[in-house]
User: Which sequence fits this backbone?
């Protein structure tokens, strides 16, 4: 049946907390279209050192983030193609595709404003890298958590608000 005065809410890619790219009926008069995962604060961590991946995953999971990892640059680019992330944390010096390639991929993607944190044992070589933050290895876990929280807070506050407009739509054909 037709749903008179339904509203469609479009959420920008930066907006968190909506349904996984599906149409959802909240009530008989409201239809919401979301383009983002309902997982909040998804972070992709890319590093070729398994102990660093494990340490970062454990630290950020403990404070409530959902972490996905990649053990090299190619895996990282593939994960970025397959899913959206709220933040990317990448080692800058890796064999094959390095962190600079990851940053370029993010900046040329459909989500170029995704915050990127570069981590490196040689941070002085990263001048001109298009990262939002650089953490020199070794770094205190508190510095990691504080930097992640700060960058996600900034990206959330910069996210455009949903656009709502009245619309008549047939809910059965939309689903």
Assistant:
């Amino acid at each position: 049946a037709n749903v008179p005065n339904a509203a469609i809410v479009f959420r920008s890619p930066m907006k968190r907390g909506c349904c996984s790219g599906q149409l959802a009926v909240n009530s008989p008069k409201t239809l919401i279209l979301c383009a983002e995962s309902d997982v909040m604060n998804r972070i992709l961590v890319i590093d070729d050192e398994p102990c660093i991946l494990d340490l970062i995953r454990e630290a950020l999971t403990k404070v409530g983030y959902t972490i996905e990892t990649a053990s090299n640059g190619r895996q990282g680019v593939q994960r970025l193609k397959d899913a959206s992330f709220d933040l990317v944390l990448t080692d800058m010096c890796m064999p094959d595709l390095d962190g600079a390639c990851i940053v370029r991929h993010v900046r040329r993607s459909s989500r170029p404003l995704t915050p990127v944190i570069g981590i490196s044992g040689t941070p002085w070589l990263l001048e001109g890298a298009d990262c939002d933050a650089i953490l020199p290895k070794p770094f205190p876990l508190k510095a990691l958590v504080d930097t992640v929280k700060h960058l996600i807070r900034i990206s959330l506050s910069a996210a455009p608000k949903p656009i709502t407009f009245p619309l008549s739509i047939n809910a059965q054909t939309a689903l």
Residues 1-39 have pLDDT under 50 and may be disordered.
